[in-house]
């Protein structure tokens, strides 16, 4: 009888793999088709996760629920539009300076070509491509900001409704699942994990952005505040965000101080990034995040394909949600385990062994 069960499970495994693969493909294509709708919904959800603890804190201090939400939304609007004004002003000034920077770049390329007469043309082409790419990033940000007007309004509206519901949400959830403690536990785990990640990532990005802006102000790098904002925003993009945000200020350091300036910018931001990721953002790839490096990188590619550039900013929290959903079913729990880092699996097995002992 046991052999029959084993054979049945073994034979059903290819069918399950085919079924899950087909479902993933269809879901991916479906999400990509409605990405313009999903982007404001996802960003509203994560904005809600960032600001909802503040609503609960105000309510604990005795502030009525709706008043708490109103105050938090005002803060949301103030932070967003204040940042947008600083961002737009810096980008306008940067666009006015581009002709001057182009002249400096031509001079530097001419100097470099004299030292590398054999491969001068190739080196010139490479440096010009790097410069073009770096400033194109800023241009894309401006275009994205101009095209995001209606989306931003929708994000404000959806976030407001989510915050208004958040006051009574714990009570509603408790009433609905009081006889189903397993579902309540999974909902609580999902909320805590994603909220903790979003809060920690936002706080560390803010500290890193401020540190970069101060460093550039001291070093005399143009548009220090703009690059600080860029580091804050790109800090949500794992691995690649740091390098994308480093290229433009490195070029300005090169224009102002020569190769030493570019190297100084790279060393300075590398030190800040190392402190942020290894000290202020502890164990995020281990027990806190529980995602392997490969999964994080693949999730960046996947969500960028599905949602475009916006997907890169929220790839990690979306993947955390997917992992927790997979953990909620016995059939997909193995897939969730495969998404974990090796160190996390070893630590979990060690803890289970101690508990069993």
TrEMBL record:
<dbReference type="InterPro" id="IPR002549">
    <property type="entry name" value="AI-2E-like"/>
</dbReference>
<feature type="transmembrane region" description="Helical">
    <location>
        <begin position="301"/>
        <end position="326"/>
    </location>
</feature>
<feature type="transmembrane region" description="Helical">
    <location>
        <begin position="37"/>
        <end position="55"/>
    </location>
</feature>
<feature type="transmembrane region" description="Helical">
    <location>
        <begin position="141"/>
        <end position="164"/>
    </location>
</feature>
<keyword id="KW-0812">Transmembrane</keyword>
<feature type="transmembrane region" description="Helical">
    <location>
        <begin position="236"/>
        <end position="255"/>
    </location>
</feature>
<feature type="transmembrane region" description="Helical">
    <location>
        <begin position="206"/>
        <end position="230"/>
    </location>
</feature>
<feature type="transmembrane region" description="Helical">
    <location>
        <begin position="67"/>
        <end position="92"/>
    </location>
</feature>
<comment type="similarity">
    <text>Belongs to the autoinducer-2 exporter (AI-2E) (TC 2.A.86) family.</text>
</comment>
<dbReference type="Pfam" id="PF01594">
    <property type="entry name" value="AI-2E_transport"/>
</dbReference>
<protein>
    <recommendedName>
        <fullName>Transport protein</fullName>
    </recommendedName>
</protein>
<keyword id="KW-1133">Transmembrane helix</keyword>
<feature type="transmembrane region" description="Helical">
    <location>
        <begin position="262"/>
        <end position="281"/>
    </location>
</feature>
<feature type="transmembrane region" description="Helical">
    <location>
        <begin position="12"/>
        <end position="31"/>
    </location>
</feature>
<dbReference type="GO" id="GO:0016020">
    <property type="term" value="C:membrane"/>
</dbReference>
<keyword id="KW-0472">Membrane</keyword>
<dbReference type="GO" id="GO:0055085">
    <property type="term" value="P:transmembrane transport"/>
</dbReference>
